[in-house]
């Protein structure tokens, strides 16, 4: 570049090239802005979908909590019933043991009575 040209205006081909480059860059910027807007919209939709899933999950968790509490109460009731049944079984077993002991005592008493009757029968004969 000669000293005379340093301050001069660009030549028409350079100006045309620069103008085309600016236009291309502007178009590319516009395209990128559209892509960015599309991405933002899709992201907002995904975010709303995730928020909805989170809300539904919270409802599901609450419902599961309620169900768990109900099941826990049912389990407590079943445990009480089981304890009552065990108590009844123990009572029955104790009553059976007492009955067996009474039967044994009555058998012995009957045997003694039979022996006395036999002895009296022999004494009388």
Can you describe this structure in just a few lines?
With 125 residues, the protein is mainly α. The protein has one helix at residues 12-124. Residues 102-115 have a biased composition (Basic and acidic residues).
What can you see in these coordinates?
This protein has about 120 residues and is mainly α. It is about 90% helix and about 0% strand. It has one helix at about 10-125. It is rod-shaped.
Features:
about 120 residues; 1 helix; rod-shaped; mainly alpha; single chain
Question: What is the helix content?
Answer: over 70%
Give, in order, the helices and strands.
H
Cα gyration radius (Å): 52 Å
Number of helices: 1
Largest sheet: none
Class from secondary-structure proportions: mainly alpha
Mean pLDDT: 92
Share in β-strands: under 5%
Shape: rod-shaped
> How many distinct beta strands?
0
How far apart the termini lie comes to 166 Å
Question: Which ranges are low-confidence, i.e. pLDDT below 50, for 5 or more consecutive residues?
Answer: none
How is the secondary structure organized here?
Elements: H1 12-124
